[in-house]
Amino acid sequence: MSNVLIETRDLVKVYPDHNRGGEIRAVDGVNFQCTTGEIFGLLGLNGAGKTTTLRMLSTALTPTSGTAVVNGFDVRNRAQDVRASIGFLSGTTGLYHRLKAREMISYFGQLHGLEGTALRARVDQILQAFGVDKFADTRCEKLSTGMKQKVNIARTVVHDPPVLILDEPTSGLDVLAATTTQDFVRSSRDQGKCVLFSTHIMSEAERLCDRIAIIHEGIIRTIGTLDELRRSSGLHYLEDIFRQIVKGVPA
C-alpha cells in the first residue's frame, strides 16, 4: 500500500539480563502499519516495549531481528533517510539550556537543511503555532517545564517531516498547553502526515487516535479503532479495555 508510511516486520529487540542471566525480549515480533493521514496510538505500561519500539523506528536502536520501513526506507540500511523523514520526540529528548528558544529551533532546522529566508519563516510559524513566540528570546534553561516541552516539539517538527513519532508529547504540560499540542497533532493528520503517538493518558488516546495498538510484555495484544476495541471487549472506556487486556495476560 503506497500510503503506508510506517510498517514493522516481526520487529524484535533483545537485551542481555545481567541480573538473572539469559535475555530480556523487550520487543517480541511486533507487526503494525501506520498510514498517511492517521494518528496511530501505541499504548502500554512502563516497560511494555513501546518506547523501545519507537526508538527502533527512529534508528536510535538497531533491531535484534526483523525490521521496519519508514517512508519507504528500511531502518537497518537507510537510517539517514529515515531520520530525514521523521520528527522524533522521546522522553529523553533534551534542550541546550544556553540557547534561546528561537536559536534552538533554528539550529535543528539547519541540521535538516533549512536556511535563509525559508528557515526564518518556518521558525516564526512554529513559534506562533505553539505559543512560544513571546518566549522566543528566552534561554531554554529559564523556561517553564511546559514551555520547554513545547520547544522540544517545535524543534522536532521544524523540518515539516511526513512522519511524526511522538512519545508522550503532552507529558508535563498543563491543560491549555496540552490542548495546543493535541490540536497540532490533529492538524498534522489533516495535512496527511503519519503520526505514531504514545501516551499514558487514555482519554487523550480516545480523543486523538484513529487506531490503537496495545503492547504488553513486548507483544502487540490488540489493534483496532476504538469502536472495534469496544465491540471485541464488550467495554466502553479505553481505560477499562486496556486494563482487561493487560490483566488478562498470564504472568
TrEMBL record:
Record-annotated membrane-spanning stretches: none
Iron-sulfur found in the keyword field: no
SUPFAM superfamilies, per the entry: P-loop containing nucleoside triphosphate hydrolases
Alphabetical UniProt keywords: ATP-binding, Nucleotide-binding, Transport
Domain ABC transporter: 6-242
GO molecular function: ATP binding
Family of this protein: Belongs to the ABC transporter superfamily.
Protein name from the UniProt record: ABC transporter ATP-binding protein
